[in-house]
From TrEMBL:
This is PDZ domain-containing protein. Gene3D superfamilies: 2.30.42.10. The keyword Transmembrane applies. The chain crosses the membrane at residues 6-27, 55-74, 86-111, 118-138, 186-209, 230-247. Coiled coil: none annotated. The keyword Lipid metabolism does not apply. InterPro entries: PDZ (IPR001478), PDZ_6 (IPR041489), PDZ_sf (IPR036034). Keywords: Membrane, Transmembrane, Transmembrane helix. It holds the Pfam family PDZ_6. It comes from the Bacteria. Residues 251-344 form the PDZ domain.
Length: 369
């Protein structure tokens, strides 16, 4: 019966829209990278791997929790959540998925006034907890290498890089739907009987997204702040959900409170980035590193986004052409003098590909012709 319920998960429209969105975001990223840097920084479809791995992990944890709590939703609320989630995917690539959960909880209050609506709103607060657990997992397991640059024109005629990261997953969360309404439409749909009541088994496709954009912060510091913000949101949502489960009448206030706190959290995130005092800007002091491709000589040297290469093989460099010309000075080994994003000076070196010194693994501002 559970296996049959899992198979019904595969017909959920929100799941397939999310899969299509992940594939679209992957090819869009490759297209932008090749347009701006002539190469794909990361060809690996890591977005799809994360989508699958995180979805299955969170689905297992979430199903255990919802089964213990006996989480129930009506078919109308399932339809409402999937509709709002699909709109979130189409309009913002899933960026508003947390608000989609809270909004659907509000819809539950509107369609089910009184005690039943408050109880159902409490269920969506539980789903919000699962969402934040998934977001925290995505952020905690994230490598800074997955912040990808986009170049735009800045002030004073110099180009500036911004860094973006976004990933998502869809977790199959088991919920119970009172009655056998679904079985009346699909005779094969699994139904269980608990005492005098019947429930349809339903795996809800819970969309989880994580991402951010930075202009002036160090990506590691920005990610740590994002994790802390998510932890605070998670703790507050747990407190609000417990209160709602004990006093269902507090559920609508809990939904509104978490929506407000989430907006404040986002504003604080943007404020922190705005107050940072460094930019990933094109410079005449040397050659700015925008990204480093993994498993390359540049990665072995520990170069990171934001570093400025001042010298290559003891030759001062000021642009991409200078740098690759200097690499020819030594066909087997590369020595660099680097100024880090924090302003520290250091010397690094590594063996390079003798027949292809241009494949050192650096992503730079492209020379303009």
């Amino acid at each position: 019966m559970v296996l049959k319920a899992l198979l019904t998960y595969l017909v959920q429209p929100a799941l397939w829209v999310a899969i299509a969105t992940v594939i679209y975001l992957y090819f869009r990223r490759l297209k932008l990278e090749r347009k701006q840097f002539r190469i794909a920084i990361e060809k690996d479809f890591y977005e799809g791997r994360t989508f699958l791995k995180t979805g299955l992990l969170l689905g297992g944890i979430g199903t255990l929790l919802t089964f213990i709590l006996g989480l129930t939703l009506t078919t109308k609320m399932v339809y409402a959540y999937e509709a709002v989630t699909i709109v979130s995917l189409l309009l913002g690539g899933g960026a508003f998925s947390f608000y989609a959960i809270l909004l659907t909880g509000g819809v539950a209050l509107y369609l089910n006034p009184g005690q039943s609506g408050s109880i159902m709103a409490s269920a969506f607060l539980v789903l919000a907890i699962l969402y934040l657990l998934g977001r925290l997992f995505l952020a905690s397991s994230k490598q800074v290498a997955h912040f990808f640059p986009l170049v735009k024109n800045g002030q004073r005629g110099r180009r500036v890089a911004t860094y973006r990261w976004r990933e998502m997953a869809v977790a199959p969360i088991l919920v119970l739907i009172p009655g056998n309404e679904i079985q009346g439409i699909f005779a094969w749909w699994p139904v269980i009987n608990l005492g005098q009541s019947s429930y349809s088994l339903f795996f809800l496709p819970l969309l989880v997204t994580a991402g951010m954009q930075i202009l002036k912060q160090d990506s590691k510091e920005a990610l740590i702040f994002y994790q802390k913000q998510t932890e605070v949101l998670l703790l507050l949502t747990v407190v609000v959900a417990i209160m709602a489960l004990i006093w269902p009448v507090s559920a609508p206030y809990g939904l509104g409170f978490m929506g407000l706190v989430s907006i404040i959290s986002w504003l604080l995130e943007r404020r922190k980035d705005h107050q940072a005092n460094n930019w990933y800007v094109e410079t005449t002091e040397g050659v700015r590193v925008l990204a480093v491709r993994k498993d390359t000589p540049a990665a072995k040297m520990g170069l990171q986004a934001g570093d400025i290469i001042l010298e290559c093989n003891k030759v001062p460099v000021s642009n991409e052409k200078n740098l690759y010309a200097a690499l020819q000075e030594n066909s087997a080994y590369c020595r660099l003098r680097v100024k880090t994003y924090a302003g520290d000076l250091r010397a690094v070196g590594s063996a390079i590909y003798a027949d292809s010194p241009h494949e050192i693994g650096l992503v730079l501002f492209q020379d303009e012709f």
